[in-house]
Design goal:
alpha+beta, Trefoil (Acidic Fibroblast Growth Factor, subunit A), Immunoglobulin-like, six-stranded antiparallel beta sheet, disordered N terminus, Fn3-like, Exo-alpha-(1->6)-L-arabinopyranosidase, alpha-L-arabinofuranosidase activity, beta-glucosidase activity, hydrolase
């Protein structure tokens, strides 16, 4: 359909030209409202075609950068892609802040997500009258990258480890953002980050290797639903490579993504990614080649060089002059950009359908109420031994490092107000409660000088220095965030200490910023002293060649960065014990609430993965001490990723998890703790017992490495879909009806509550390895005590298809499928079997040209690589003896010749074996080497008489051989 629309646009352009030539009336001024591109009664494509016809080539090229300049002669204003709107409008000031994305998904409530998306879309529109810097109606949200590894630093930005759930909630959120009108856009959401982006370590140079089944069944399925439902208007390319090719030039942008919808899409690059093609990735020699390749692959808008569009437009013009691009390539991309701008109502009278929305919608009472509802539904009750709900009478204490603060994350708006857990509980009880953060207050004394590290007393703080002052000015509250990282908050002014590229100053309300300069490590030495190490910019790409430490560098004792050998040795004097304070606060109280968790700027963030999933040691010790002092202790874990939780899961009577949930966090938690709301959130990821349950974060093959609930064979701490309630539910009467199943669900408890009814399937027998369980449908249902409702869950035979690598197509196999319905992936309450009539996948026919990537199994040392820079995937061997398996191959009366397309700069071989990697050798193809990894040649080998019958065929490669396609004939 895409090609058809392009032809229609060209035809209309010719028609308009002809009409003009025949003397038709044409407006005298290009910004006249009667001009065709300003006529809302015309189709989007007609308007785009008209506008394209009026632009010069330079003007069309100017539309291809993030910052599109105004075109005054046509009365067109400037346009900017990329307003962040992950869980509220970000970076534009005070706006409604909803729970982080992983929390929104934990509601399992698409209806709510659509409402939240609509509110965020309204607030983005609310800025349109003033158009502040950084504002635009192309929103970069939602993030649909699958959370297959909970150590990913950006875990809070995604929704789930499951593509079906991710598709459902992203479609709902995106529909809210767009407004749901097929012809008019409230905003234009762009889903991030295409494709297979789930690690931050070396994120611009690592390759996510996706065998076809993982690509088709898993990663693409997270992106397709929102695009197919017109709930998103394009994708953002990710920094990483897929199968050796940077996603900035991934041909799937056109070849796959655009096939999911009949609408024009606006695809953008991530910030500075085009420059990476020449820089860190070294994929192209010049920016001209790189930008031309990106445009050819399906990128429409380049996010590069900040506001300076010059390098991009120069590269495109050079590509045109050298034949790397044609004007039709520019027209295609510019047309995609303009299509979105037309649908946004930019050229309509009054700004179109949504042009009247103003700033009154921002942080409106309705949005505040919605934020509270979302924060309430997002929380997940992990454990409850009868401790919850709490009584609203008696004394209470709220302690912990997150008891009386709300942290904001990188992609967040400014909180218009903050209801902390302590605030919410006090409001609920109508009285003040005992509270402390439970962190140690320390002083650091230089053992060589006897002087103390001292901070400034004013609001703006001052550079840290060593002085003889041993009072409050030399005291710091030390927060432990795990993995050895601490932050220091000055007792002198309540501000955090951070590095400002010149000095260490106590001037920040919270840890923040891209580099999060407020991080330190206290490294204990053998003599009992400590070195204070700066950890604010410790990455594998650090500007510092070696670890750096603090020590006096000025004549006045001002602290600066020094090498380890010059670092000051400090005694750490505990002025006040956080544990002792917390214990004192909770002793004798009827209720003790401990709030622990993460700082989203520290415990994993963009460009930084987590190294472990444990709660910070000091926080775990705090919980244990509080529980020992008061058995009526409940624990709130406030972070945005699964946590191993150590022994706490067994010891404390109640655990409630919430993501960082925005301005209404405290009210939502109080509603849940005291029973005014019934917990109904469900986990969207597997919570593992140990980091040892996870393979390398760079291993993307969830099938072979048994990742996510679909394939994980271990015992989870908490399974996917898990969440408790204050009431109970019973299931009965599961049966197939029409295009799905129905089941009766009854609230058998004494409280109203919401159950998330989840339907999973399992294929009992298959040619290929299948998931242990796979979510196919779900529905959230609210029930009063004693109420029964029939829940209908849609699942069709076509939903059971998996990708058949033998024929590169979707296939539904005939056989028996288990249908499992319940409260989580491991709590199945009703089950039945389903006899499905599909097909039988035939034996492989390797006499046909077979792509090497379509293997059934492989060994260590096999890598998926780019066949060429433009398209295709090949297989490469990192070591001698690496092998590929092609199962159940019909060789018939005998195959006589093996032929293969191979590349590589070193000589090598490809062995053909039967039965196993060391099985019968039936042929060896010898390879002399080619001029480059992209220079393929054909090699052949005669096969012995043993190459017949029906067998598993193994191709065994020598080191550095690249194999693209092959045949056995």
């Amino acid at each position: 359909m895409k090609g058809k629309r392009r032809r229609q646009r060209t035809t209309l352009l010719a028609a308009l030209t002809l009409i003009a030539g025949l003397g038709a009336t044409v407006p005298a001024h290009a910004d006249d409202p009667a001009y065709p591109f300003r006529d809302p009664s015309l189709s989007v494509h007609a308007r785009v075609t008209d506008l394209l016809s009026r632009l010069t080539l330079d003007e069309k090229i100017s539309l291809l950068h993030q910052y599109e300049p105004a075109i005054p002669r046509l009365g067109i204003q400037s346009f900017r892609t990329g307003t962040e709107a992950l869980h509220g409008v970000a970076w534009l000031g005070k706006t409604t802040v909803f729970p982080q994305a992983v929390g929104l998904a934990s509601t399992w409530d698409p209806s709510l997500l659509r409402q939240v998306g609509s509110a965020v879309g309204d607030e983005a529109r609310g800025f349109q009258q003033t158009r502040p810097a950084g504002w635009g109606l192309n929103l970069w949200a939602p993030v649909v990258n699958l959370l297959r590894d909970p150590r990913w630093g950006r875990n809070e930005e995604g929704y789930s480890e499951d593509p079906y759930l991710t598709g459902a909630v992203s479609t709902a959120y995106g529909t809210g953002l767009t407004g749901g009108d097929p012809d008019h856009l409230k905003t234009a959401p762009t889903i991030k980050h295409f494709l297979a982006n789930n690690n931050e370590v070396h994120r611009d140079t690592t390759s996510s290797e996706l065998r076809p089944r993982v690509l088709k069944e898993y990663d693409e399925q997270a992106f397709k639903p929102a695009i197919a439902a017109d709930a998103a208007t394009g994708v953002m390319t990710s920094y990483n490579l897929v199968n050796g090719r940077p996603n900035t030039v991934n041909p799937a942008l056109d070849d796959t993504v655009r096939t999911w919808t009949s609408k024009d899409l606006l695809n953008v690059t991530d910030a500075a990614a085009p420059g990476n093609l020449v820089g860190s990735q070294k994929y192209y020699g010049t920016q001209t080649e790189a930008d031309a390749a990106a445009l050819k692959a399906g990128v429409d808008s380049f996010t590069d060089n900040d506001t300076d569009s010059g390098p991009t437009t120069t590269a495109v013009k050079t590509a045109l002059s050298t034949g790397l691009l044609t004007e039709s390539d520019v027209d295609k991309a510019a047309g995609d950009v303009l299509s979105i701008r037309v649908r946004l109502g930019e050229f309509d009278p009054g700004g179109g359908r949504y042009g009247s929305i103003d700033a009154s919608v921002i942080d409106s009472p309705a949005h505040r109420a919605l934020a509270r509802k979302a924060a309430t539904e997002a929380a997940v009750l992990l454990k409850n031994d009868g401790a919850l709900p709490l009584r609203k009478t008696g004394s209470a204490a709220v302690v912990g490092p997150l008891a009386d603060t709300l942290y904001t994350d990188w992609y967040s708006g400014t909180l218009p107000y903050a209801v902390t857990p302590k605030d919410g509980i006090e409001a609920k009880l109508g009285t003040s409660v005992a509270s402390t953060e439970g962190v140690d207050r320390i002083a650091l004394k230089d053992t060589a000088t006897g002087k103390y590290v001292t901070a400034g007393t004013g609001e703006a703080g001052a550079p840290l220095k060593e002085t003889a002052d041993s009072g409050t000015d030399s005291q710091f509250d030390m927060f432990d965030w795990g993995s050895g990282i601490v932050t220091l908050r000055s007792a002198a002014n309540g501000k955090y200490v951070g590095y400002n590229w010149s000095n260490f100053v106590n001037d920040q309300t919270q840890p923040n910023g891209w580099f999060v300069q407020q991080q330190f490590r206290l490294e204990r030495q053998d003599d009992g002293t400590y070195l204070l190490r700066y950890a604010g910019y410790e990455t594998s790409e650090s500007w510092w060649s070696n670890p750096v430490y603090l020590g006096p560098t000025g004549t006045d004792g001002t602290l600066g960065l020094v090498a380890k050998g010059q670092a000051a040795h400090y005694t750490k004097d505990v002025v006040r014990s956080g544990v002792d304070e917390a214990v004192a606060a909770v002793k004798g109280k009827d209720q003790a609430v401990v709030v622990v968790g993460s700082d989203p700027s520290i415990n994993g963030r963009e460009a930084h993965d987590r190294t472990d999933l444990a709660l910070a040691p000091s926080q775990e010790a705090l919980v244990k001490a509080v529980h020992a002092a008061n058995p009526h202790t409940v624990v709130i874990v406030e972070n945005s990723y699964p946590t191993t939780l150590g022994s706490l899961q067994k010891e404390v009577p109640a655990l409630l998890w919430t993501t960082h949930a925005g301005q209404e966090t405290g009210n939502a938690l109080a509603d849940l703790l005291y029973g005014d709301a019934n917990p109904s959130g469900r986990l969207t990821q597997t919570w593992y017992r140990s980091d040892a349950d996870l393979p390398s974060i760079l291993d993307y093959d969830i099938i072979k490495s048994d990742r996510t609930y679909q394939y994980f064979k271990g015992q989870a701490l908490y399974p996917f879909g898990y969440g408790l309630s204050y009431t109970t539910f019973a299931y009965s009467g599961l049966r197939r009806v029409g295009d799905g199943y129905e089941v009766r669900v009854t609230n058998t408890g004494s409280r109203a509550g919401a159950e998330v009814v989840q339907l999973y399937t399992h294929q009992r027998a298959s040619r290929d390895k299948q998931p242990l369980k796979q979510l196919k449908s779900f529905q959230r249902v609210s029930l009063k005590p004693g109420e029964t409702r029939t829940v209908r869950l849609k699942v069709r035979p076509s939903d059971l298809a998996h990708w058949d690598v033998t024929r590169s197509k979707w296939a539904v196999e005939s056989g028996t499928y288990d249908v499992l319905v319940g409260s989580s992936s491991s709590d199945i309450r009703a089950r039945t079997s389903w006899q499905v009539k599909g097909e039988t996948i035939p034996p492989r026919d390797l006499s046909k040209l077979t792509r090497a990537e379509n293997f059934d199994d492989y060994s260590a040392g096999i890598a998926l690589v780019d066949e060429s820079k433009a398209s295709g995937t090949a297989v490469s061997a990192a070591s001698d003896g690496a092998w590929l398996k092609f199962a159940d191959t019909r060789l018939g009366a005998g195959a006589g010749e093996f032929g293969a397309r191979v590349a590589g700069t070193s000589p090598g071989t490809v062995e053909v074996r039967l039965g196993s990697p060391t099985g019968t050798l039936v042929g060896t193809a010898h390879f002399a080497g080619t001029s480059s990894p992209y220079d393929y040649t054909t090699v052949t080998a005669e096969l012995s008489g043993a190459a017949k019958g029906r067998a598993d065929v193994y191709l065994v490669l020598s080191k550095d051989v690249r194999l693209s396609t092959f045949t056995l004939r």
